[in-house]
Amino acid sequence: MKDIVNFNEESNSKKKVNKKKIIIAISIGIILLAVGITMLVYYSSSDARKFLDQHLFRKNISQENLTSIDLDYDSNVSVFAYDRYICVLAENKLMEYNSSGKLENEIDLEINNPVYSVNNKYIAISEQNGTKLNLISGSEILWTKTLDGNISKINVNNNGYVSVILTGTTYKSVITTFDNNGNELFKTFRSTTTVVDTSISNDNKYMAFAEVNTSGTTIQSNIRVISIEDPSDSEIFSYSAESNKLIINIEYIGNDKIICMYDDEICMIQNGNNSSLMSLNESGKNINFANINLENCIYRAIEENAGLFNTNTVIEIRNVNNDSTAVYTTEGAAKYIYINNNVIAISLGQDIVFVNTIGWLLKSYSSTQEAQDVVIGNGIAGIVYSDRVGIINL
Asked: What is the pLDDT of residues 208-251, one digit of tens each?
């Protein structure tokens, strides 16, 4: 009889356990189904995505919710971002703050009016029209060089290779190229043209530069490529644009694509061939902003009339690797647009919208006053005011 009672108790216990497992499995299934439906709706509908961003994912943030860095200096103050830091340059010190607003690093740097280039974990920085060039990574200056000429523009690639445009010499422009250890690789001299931009390929094999010749009756823009491995071989490639096309800047994407931004269009040079990617002077479209310095992407911003007294800003983002296009539309006219890596920040005055390069909202920021500047790093952004910098984690 005892055995029968024990058997019944064990049987009932197993039934309870099985029921509990079934209830848990059904609950998990319902949760997964709900998540799946939510994500399906999120992916397929821009209106639903906007609603979910605001009410479910809480991507809207306001000024009073931000951690801030105070700006209280007597001298000039420059604020910029690189890697995961918000940087404040003041009183001959570069101060690096993390996403919590904590000072992590402090570097002595005698610069008042900086010109710099940021890429990945590197920042190459100098005094505008100065002669001393610094490459910084993390908490230290990796190397410093004094150059013959005035530094007007700097480019650093994601491996720390640096090219510098110099003026104020007997030549119109001089380009000096360094490796990531500060070794000078070669110089490029231009006597009749003005170099407007440089870029180094991701594999450190090529340095491309854009130059403009205005000595004739028409503007002539050229793009030239030099082998870093064998600079004595001079140019390995050159391309001359149509007359009166003004080159503004260039950017290597990967190892073989050179994106060229002109005053009227964005083009790509690959394997010696030039192709148009995006018009900046399209009939019937009010194109206010464009840039090529995103991660594998380019963009243009179109201002559209959305009815009486209403304006929308439409951001068209094109991926140059897979040729896909993403579109993001926000209410209001963009006053300025800031970019870095895969983030686009659209300043609408007191409001700033952060979007990624697949056209999805990252954060929507609102304030009672207009920001002076916006700086963007890796997963971090700074909203710059005269007395403080608000920190946003993206």
From this structure: 999 999 988 899 999 999 999 987 767 899 999 999 999 999 99
Q: What is the DSSP letter of 225?
A: E
Give the DSSP letter of residue 64.
G
Q: What span, in angstroms and rounded, lies between the C-alpha atoms of 304 and 87?
A: 36
Which residues, given as ranges, of the chain have pLDDT below 70? Answer: 1-18, 30, 33-58, 233
Q: Do the Cβ atoms of 89 and 109 come closer than 8 Å?
A: yes
- 306, burial (CB in 10 Å: exposed 0-12, middle 13-18, buried 19+): middle
Which class for 135: exposed (0-12), middle (13-18), buried (19 or more C-beta within 10 A)?
Answer: buried
pTM of the complete model: 0.86
Half-sphere exposure of 339 (CA within 13 A, CB side): 21
Tally Cβ neighbours within 10 Å of residue 336: 15
Could you give the C-alpha distances from 289 to 28, 264, 294, in angstroms and in order?
Answer: 47, 12, 14
Q: Which helix (H) or strand (E) holds 198?
A: strand 194-200
Q: What is the DSSP letter of 233?
A: G
